[in-house]
Design brief:
Blueprint (H helix, E strand, L loop, with lengths): L1 H25 L3 H10 L4 H7 L4 H20 L9 H17 L2 H11 L5 H18 L7 H24 L1 H16 L1 H7 L4 H15 L1
Length: about 210
């Protein structure tokens, strides 16, 4: 069973590797997914068995690959040696750099996640990214602050990614620096925000990446 699981996970990553080459031209679509599977020597049935939700499964795999890459980069830094602002900046920078390594595919990934039916998936993936960075930074909050911090950082991550793709790293990090205080002053932020604002922020940022 473990061997089968290892094979499935490794083959999923191979499909994702092939998808990253195809997506810039073909988009984040089912035909692209099937073509990626074919490039790995898989039949349509085998591909659909491994990634039954097609583009959605690959979107999640890509986001989690970039999360892992960011955390691997951060593993060489002891967060305790940094101020909390510096930890958050380092985390966001590492995550944006990871996404930028697959820029062409990420643009199409963003277009796919900008579809109204995919916004919940986008929010889920962003939340995972923000949670991973906060945990690296040493956050142990379990009350409502846990959720507030992750909601704020999710908004910064997606807006920063939109700016990174549109204007480059300097523009993105200037934006991040300007928003770090929001992370630190989350109580003030909570008082000025409404429940649906994160959804709107995510939709707006994804739309910017999709349409420019």
């Amino acid at each position: 069973m473990a061997h089968e699981t290892d094979w499935a996970e490794a083959t999923e990553q191979q499909i994702l590797d092939a998808a990253l080459k195809l997506a810039p031209a073909q988009g984040w679509t089912w035909p692209m997914v099937r073509a990626a599977g074919k490039a790995c020597g898989l039949s349509v049935a085998e591909t659909e068995l491994l990634v039954p939700h097609g583009p959605a499964d690959l979107a999640a795999l890509l986001s989690r690959r970039h999360d892992a890459a960011a955390l691997a980069r951060l593993a060489g830094t002891d967060p305790k040696t940094l101020k909390i602002r510096e930890r958050i900046r380092a985390g966001v920078e590492a995550r944006l750099d990871a996404a930028a390594t697959d820029e062409g595919a990420v643009r199409r990934w963003a277009g796919y996640l900008a579809l109204p039916t995919r916004i919940p998936l986008a929010v889920k993936l962003l939340w995972e990214s923000a949670d991973g960075l906060w945990r690296w930074a040493g956050d142990t909050a379990t009350d409502e602050n846990h959720y507030s911090k992750r909601a704020i950082l999710s908004g910064i991550l997606i807006s920063g990614l939109a700016l990174r793709l549109a204007g480059g790293k300097a523009d993105a990090m200037a934006f991040v620096d300007s928003r770090i205080e929001n992370v630190m002053a989350y109580e003030k932020w909570k008082a000025s925000r409404k429940g649906g604002d994160l959804l709107r922020d995510v939709a707006a940022a994804l739309g910017k990446m999709r349409y420019g």
